[in-house]
Specification:
Two copies of one chain form a homodimer. Chain A is an all-alpha fold. Helix content of chain A is 75%, strand content 0%. Chain A is elongated and about 60 Å long. The first copy, chain A, starts with a helix and ends in a 5-residue tail after the last helix. At the A-B interface, α9 and α10 of A face α9 and α10 of B. The first copy, chain A, binds a DNA duplex (30 and 30 nucleotides) through α1, α2 and α3.
Chain lengths: 166, 166
DNA sequence: TCCTAAGCGGACTGAGCCGTCCGCTTTCGA
DNA sequence: TCGAAAGCGGACGGCTCAGTCCGCTTAGGA
């Protein structure tokens, strides 16, 4: 069940091109544009992915996996507050580089990559809250929802997430 | 140069329908949908507004005017910090009720309504900064950009906007 | 080398959109 | 009342997009 060499090469090209297009223009980038950038026909894009949404999920889940890894790495950091803040900055950077990351969040809610991300962020949040470094009334979902804002206003978001009255 | 009675009635209906559609679905609501909701033909929408963007500007500038009025009213409040926070809450509420408000911001940059809004917010920001109630590294544009986030996380944004270390 | 199945890509379909146009209807002043 | 001008709305064109299809090409094992 292995792909023919040319098919595998084209699949790789499509994934790279889609990744770039989505990063630059968001998920509204058209399949034609992706195909053109990949140097393949537009039919080739749809051969591996039955719908455009499937392509988006494939690409974004990959990138979500990378963010989940930084979250898991942050869990190794001893200072819970610094670990949390570091993750928010990393995630904000990832979002800056890749507009599609959270634009396509709804499509990725069911993926194992998103589950892993949420799990890691939940742990970061709980630890930071126990350490008194994070206000108690925010959830992991809230933190993820704040990432786009943190990419433009990191200090405002991080200060706003500290427990009030400290 | 006054409109015929039926034309005026239809124009009013279109404006109301557009307002509702944009509030619910954002500016992506189609002209057909607006026409249907207004109970008029789709050509009637385009008779008064040469393009869909012109319609968006007409509707959103009206609502921006209302927000500008709350900003100006806040300037009368003696407590600069409370005035600023109150405005942010009001603007966030307006955004919650009307998704189009800032989605269409780019189209409205040139309108007198937006000029008035920015002017009032600039004054609110300057006053709050002088009173030590607002961090110095934010501008009126930043505040407006933060409104959508404030509609979901008002406390986080308001706390984040306070000067650090106080 | 040669045959076959896998792969290719571009033409095609259909949906949804914006904006135009024109034959019919309605208003309203004379 | 009546005619001209204003207004109406739906059919239409042109565009972009997602997704399908099929005749041609190519990989790669026998």
């Amino acid at each position: 069940m292995t792909l023919r060499a040319d098919a595998q090469r084209n699949l790789d090209r499509v994934l790279v091109a889609a990744s770039e297009c989505f990063a630059e223009r968001g998920v509204d980038a058209s399949a034609d544009e992706i195909a053109r950038r990949a140097g393949v026909g537009h039919g080739t894009v749809f051969r591996r992915f039955p719908t455009k949404d499937a392509l988006i999920v494939a690409v974004v889940a990959m990138q979500m996996h990378a963010v989940a890894e930084t979250a898991e790495a942050a869990l190794a950091e001893p200072d819970a507050g610094a670990a949390f803040a570091g993750f928010v900055r990393d995630a904000a950077d990832a979002y800056t580089r890749n507009r599609a990351l959270l634009d396509a969040l709804d499509l990725c809610l069911e993926t194992p990559e998103f589950e892993a991300l949420v799990g890691a962020v939940r742990a970061l949040v709980a630890r930071a809250q126990e350490a008194g470094a994070l206000r108690r009334d925010v959830t992991a979902d809230d933190v993820l929802a704040l990432v786009p804002t943190a990419s433009r206003f990191p200090e405002v978001v991080l200060d706003g997430l500290r427990p009030p009255g400290r």
